[in-house]
Amino acid sequence: MDISSWKEKIKNTIAGLDLRHPWEDPEDEDDWEDFDLKDDYITGAENAGGDLTEEFVLSRPVLIAVTAVLILAALIAYHVFSRRHLYTSYSVVRSYESDDISGTMYERLGSVYVKYGSDGLFVVNAKNETIWSVAYTIQSPIAAVCGETMAIAEQQGSQVVVLDKDGEIGTYTTDLPIIGVSVSENGVTLLRLRDGDAMRLRMYATDGSTIAEIKTTLEDTGYPLAAAMNDDATHVMLSCVRIGDGEVDSRILFYDFRKAQQADSEHMTVAYDYEDMVFPTLYYTDGNVPVAVGSDGFAVFTTGAAPDEKEFVAVEEEIRSTFYDDDYVGFIFDSEDTTLRYRMEVYRLNGRQTMSEDFDASYTDVCMDGGEILLWDEGNCQAWTVKGIQRLKTATDVKVSRFFKVAGFRQYLIVSESGMTFIKAE
User: Fold this and answer.
1) Which one is predicted more confidently, 23 or 130?
2) Which residues lie across from 354 on neighbouring strands?
3) I want to staple 389 with a disulfide (CB 3.0 to 4.6 A). Which of 93, 137, 380, 385 is the partner?
4) Measuring CA to CA, which residue among 339, 408, 354, 402 is closest to residue 375?
5) 29/41 Cα distance (integer angstroms)
6) Exposure of 76 by Cβ count < 10 A (0-12 exposed, 13-18 middle, 19+ buried)?
7) CB atoms near residue 140 (< 10 Å)
8) pLDDT for 27
9) Burial category of 366 from C-beta neighbours within 10 Å (exposed 0-12, middle 13-18, buried 19 and up)
């Protein structure tokens, strides 16, 4: 390659990169005829010397590639930082006022929210606008939710209201006092009813007609503590407590209600006994996996009419709180660290532990929502990931009644008596 050829390439490359140097002066452009490079002029070199290769021409694509790598690295670093950073304040994205009375409770059904109490319920959208409402008188309301279906029952009373996000789908009364309620996605309710010294497990259609019933006694099965139904109300899991010789034992029973006309004994398919344990929480996941959460751990069973115990995870400390979703079960204990108050542990349903973290913030309620662990009391909110990263810890400007995770990174909803406040952690 001759001198004029590579000199022309140098000029084209510099022009293409649009570089600016302090030595550039349009008036002296002709002076470069006696020098091979501008660097030679500055250093006093008299000889062009050296061989320039075609690689020099590639400096622009190399520069672009390096810049892209640096930008990508910066984005990854920001992503990692933001995902692992603890946010201690928040900004209000939007808020909507209301005048809810003290004691109002809240649940979410898909994209709407249910506010309910002893005098009735209101279904509102994300702008706190009432979509529809129902008036009733239920002195001690208890509720159950399955997907976008909800049942509200009168504890120690007889009234039941079944609804979805679009409206009321059933209301009826029972002839026996209600102790507990479960609901399926199709609106079938499962009630635990007190019948003197015995208990009845009764399944109702939305019109109040009885689908199936089981009578339990303390002598045969023990005291029914909790019950759960699968999504289509064909399988039922029941937890019973038995007391004898100073010990408290539990039995978990499974029932198949696909043939409603069978005798009580024929509905039951399998039972499991657990010594010195109680199971106050039962649920079916979206995949119809039965899970029983107890005083000393949790059990996971296979699906089907006669499930097998698949996993059992035992914990040794006294459990203060439990929380769960379709993939995880978690516990809160007193911390062994004297400088901190609590320890939180989370497990997958296969038994593998994903986190064990100590923390010191106060809380009165805990749940899993949107894949995160949410804790709150009247003046504080926290959010954790299932891998033990505390994402949010902040005091609030309102008296918190309920705390939700909403769509969007670091996006949450605080529900209070004064309204709905959508926030972003900062």
Assistant:
1) 130
2) none
3) 385
4) 402
5) 12
6) exposed
7) 11
8) 45
9) buried
Q: How many helical (H) and strand (E) elements, i.e. helices and strands, does the chain have?
A: 4, 32
- Find all residues with CB under 8 Å of 132, minimum gap 6, and list them: 123, 167
Locate the domains of the chain by residue range: 3-84
Residue in 157, 163, 159 with CA at minimum distance from that of residue 107 = 163
Q: Give the confidence band of 231 by pLDDT, cuts at 50, 70, 90.
A: very high
Q: What Å distances lie between residue 385 and 83, 193, 220, 316, 391, CA to CA?
A: 10, 38, 43, 23, 7
* The amino acid at 129: E
Query: Which residue would you say has higher pLDDT here, 402 or 246?
Result: 402
- Residue 190 phi/psi, 5-degree rounding, is -120, 115
The Cα-based distances of 319 to 314, 315, 358, 381 in angstroms read 11, 8, 14, 21
Q: What is the pLDDT of residue 10?
A: 46
Confidence of residue 260 (pLDDT cuts 50, 70, 90): low
C-alpha–C-alpha distance, residues 231 and 153, integer Å? 19
Amino acid at 264: D
Tell me the Cα Rg of the chain: 33
- Work out the end-to-end distance of the chain between its first and last CA atoms, rounded to an integer number of angstroms: 60
